[in-house]
Amino acid sequence: MRATKSWIAEYADLPAGLSAWQLADALVSVGLEVEQVEAIGGDVSGPVVIGRVVDFVEEPQKNGKTIRWCHVDVGPEHAPKSPPAPLVKGGEVPELRPSRLADARTSGSAEGPGAYWPRGVICGALNFAPGDHVVVALPGATLPGPFPIGSRKTYGHVSDGMICAEDELGLGDDHAGIIVLGEVDDEGNPWTIGAPALEAMGVSDDVLDMPVTPDMGHCLSVRGLAREASQALHVAYRDVIAHATPAPSQGGHPVVLESEACPLFVALTVEGFDPAAESPAWMKQRLSACGMRSISLSVDISNYVMLETGQPNHCYDADTLQGAIVVRQAKPGERITTLDDVVRTLDEADLVITDDRGPIGIAGVMGGEDTELRDTTTRIVIEAANFDPVSIARTSRRHKLGSEASRRFERSVDPGAAYGAARRVADLLIELGGGRLAAETVAGEVPAMPVQTIDAGLPERILGMPVAADRVVEILTASGVEVARDGDTLTLTPPSWRADLVDPYDYVEEVGIKVGYEHLPSVVPAAPVGRGYTTEQKLRRAIGRALAASGFVEVLTFPWASAADADALGLDADDPRRRTVALTNPLAETAPLLRTTILPGLFGAVARNASRGADDLALFEAGRVFFASETGEAAPLPSVDGRPSDEELEAIERAIPWQPRNLAAVLTGAWMPAGWQGAATLASWTQAIAFAEIAAAVVGVRLERRSAQQAPWHPGRCAELVVGEEVIGYAGELHPSVVKAFDLPTRTAAVEIDLDLLVSLFDGAGVLTPVSSQPVAKEDIALIVDESVPVADLQEAVVAGGGELLESVRLFDIYRGAPVPEGKKSVAFALRLRASDRTLTDADAAGVREASVAVAVERFGAELRA
Question: Does CATH place domain 535-636+648-760 in 3.50.30.30?
Fold first, then answer.
């Protein structure tokens, strides 16, 4: 919501000298947020004055453009010392006569007392005539940009200033022509030639730009902002709504309400309106400051009153209405062409405005083109209605059609303002465009507001600071709440513009905001003795730190998923990852599901980075995934009026999806970049498996790897990661079809493991061992085995034989070829041996070596290679 300080000041008696920023601070103190304060005309400096066009001549140019060489009277204080170049009309040079002052002051002119010369100015606009009053920026002025103004030669003349358009002064977006002022200002006084223009026009103002939260919908209006400002600053407030809603009547255009989603509909008829009447400058300026462009007087008045009162309204051409106005739900297949020239097919849930021919407007969202105002409209029916917020919000979203009206209705509009706002529109149409109020219809009535009873001490107990009962009554009364007090019991009826005041704690919040949250005591709760992170939390954090220290970068992606993700991943029809949970109200229609795997989110992060030239990536994420229950039972939506029943709670519990934590990573590009030390090391399945091994090492378990087939990995390049009998995940190179579907770099590798399962394997014994001060002994062995023997299994045999003196085993070579027989391979391991209490002898080392080889021989028929 954008609003000018001067507009707010019309309805709240702001203190003299109050700056716009001080007003912003006051509004922030009562719960609003002010993003910025803009000064209209604040970027304009130097002489910018009111001028009068004395005469001009049009001069066509070689580039096809026509410019005007003008003589402009800017007053004696700004007149040049010598006359400008003459105008040449039809080959003749008219005599240039100096202007004269009524008080006979001189300006250095040689033409006698009281005489002064106009300035010569080049102008490209064609929307003015001799005698028109204009805005002139003189040499020495600076316009927004910044754009300094000086005398310069152009198009064969010295242009001694610039005649300004609206956008050049930062007053709006209109650049079609220069500003042409009427004969008199808004107060009916003649313009003073040479006077400061922005001050004379009354456009110097400050604009407050405020995002309005859904619970403060009444502040989407100058009326609401002025009310909040008056309460914050303790000043008087005047309501722009000057008329209460009368009893229902059908004295004007007939209206029929057929839907409970419209409790009130006001229709006023104005006749004799002059469609040629123009919007006054003050109205155009305020609309422009609030982000709206001027269209026509009738449309401008409609928008002006909406901004002022917060009540959206709509004007129909009365001569185009056919029969009674009916408010009802749309029928299947009905269509309407809205004011944006789009043909829309309506849904049965849409609330529509109709006449005998069918829909003429989507209620609360946008009108139809069949009944829109035209250049010849003289009879106008003004609509101001109240609609159900949920219905309007769903319709707006369904048709992807947001408007200023729907934005307000979605946040609840004051039903008590409908009639008063309609009368405000009618009064302005009559005042500015002639005509008369011919008839009025009021269908329905203002809905009753919910009554609530609270204990006067409730705000103090909840807020945790002293708030006397009298202060509570004072605050709520100033907020428009009707308060009936009976001892310590308060019976509260909110005003019609406060639909957010429903339960007792809404009133507590209102009191807290108006008292000021900055006065709330800061009390830090004491941590219970002996409590802290759980073992699982510590392990998860340790895993994240270890992975980050190893070169992986942690990211957070959204947990939403697309229905197409499962197909893109190549999942089988019975894959558990297809058992998704659908969101009732997704943030995006393209991602209406909760994820069952972290990988698609990481794929998206990789694709975005790669599209920006970042190809060397090792991204990982730890987070929850969500699996729908096998029964597919949906959770019930219990009423908010009371506690859910035991049956409802059990149904909710059954419908809660299984939500394990997963850990996943995606690798692309170079793991180690090329440099003086050699070529780049490409990221591949080896780093993907190392990722899982690092996580397992933190927990103190050892991973086994075996070949597997699992989407979305390449069938021949996928490893199943196992701890004991538990499969905790998969790692390897992605299938080419998956790489293509998600627009990933070729040969992208990925890994995903069940983090909860991995953490559960921690045996509680700890994973840290003291560092021995004894020296290490090293032994190497090379074993010849069949090609079919997995290296991991062979290494496990070596470890099993090594016993407690074997500190580590590292594979350092696999060899095929002579003298190793065909069909076999030589696998070499480096053994590190150490005792905690003594130095190992040669005999000790040889014993460990022989024991390791013995187990390998026993299990796989290995031969020790000489």
Answer: no
